[in-house]
Design goal:
heterodimer; A: mainly alpha; MetI-like fold; about 75% helix; B: mainly alpha; 9 helices
Chain lengths: ~240, ~220
Amino acid sequence: MGSYRWNWPILLADPYYGWIVSGFGNTCLIAVLAWSIAFPLGSAIGIARTTELRPLRLVGTIYVEVFRNIPLLAQMFLWYFVVPELLPQDWGHWVKRDMPYPQFLTSVLCLGLYTASRVAEQVRSGLEAIPRGQHHAGLAMGLTPAQVYRYVRLPVAYRIIIPSLTSDFLGVFKNSSLALTIGVLELTSQARQIEEYTFAAFEAFATATLLYCAVTGIVILAMRQVERRTRIPGTIAIGAQ
Amino acid sequence: MGGGFDFAVLIRNAPFLWGGMVLTLQLTALAVTGGLALGLVLAVLRLSRIPFAPALVAGYVNFLRSMPLILAIFWFYTLIPKLTGQSVSSFYSVLIAFILFEAAYYSEIIRAGISSVRRGQIAAALALGLSNAQAMRYVVLPQAIRNMIPVLLTQSIVMLQDTSLVYVVGLRDFLTTADIVAGRDSRPVELYMFVALTFLVVCFSASRLVNRLRRRYAL
């Protein structure tokens, strides 16, 4: 690439520096907010799929299959273009005219509901990995089924699935880039915009890539510590090696 | 919106949408083939004792896995023409991005499949007088392939869904053609619902088949 003219300082110039900072901020904010929908909702659905109640299990299964088998980008378009049309008229009006930050909130909702289906599968597999005997022992000791979940099964299940939940969180962090398709100025779209304004493609994309890698690295290291500290005695945890 | 659902718009535009579907399927097939081939090479290198190879492959895999696919698509879309000095069709730049990206995921699945075969099996094969290559061919690989095929197929279903991201460079796949019609005929509800339902039916049936396969061939 001999003819390529390097221009790193352009990234520190106004307004491009501000674009990167605000894009990075939006990316992190979308990821955290979407995760705060995905984690509780996904946990509830995952638990629903392990209960004895058939209707609850069915609802959980349908949720997971629907959200997992439609491309995330198509889901983004459904939430942004289709759902406001299908809502009752005054709700639709509110969403289209008065809702603050429509693109941002839509992408948070979309990513949160999609990621919930992945969290649900992890929680279910964590719960199913625990021997049935523990469940029965809890019931025999006089705990209610809800108490068995709360005090026996969930504390163990969550500790088993920490690595998978970490990768799901990193998944939503990376998937936040899809928000650019409905006009949210997150990190990837800001890099693209800098490329269009300055032709400094390599510099802009490298900076974005570096920021994604940095966050990924930090999250993985932090979660290894969490995993090590919450390790169930007698099992193998990556962070303990 | 002109009020009410208008399914005629789907029939009117069926040939155009089908063209998009064909591109989606072509892209998926080529990316899966290329990704598997490169992924296999990466997995073998990572399990090999060639100096530096395992660390380099690990670096490659972790690097690509911490980057969003959209960013990878943009990288190749803007940089391949700059590096080679000639314009490359967006289909090929996207295909290269998908192959390099998916190979990272496939290689991890293949590596896990090979590693899942217990060491004792190799020791037993060698003790029976098989050569290293024979132990690999007749003992390790048949078990490894059974373990990893369902996961590889599931990843390929994910890949089929991910091809819709070519939308960001305007390549006319299934979702993008539907988007074009939605804008031109002002029928977003019908078009996006049609795309979502089509993917839902295809991917759900495919994942059911994979589950049956998994149960039938599980060790």
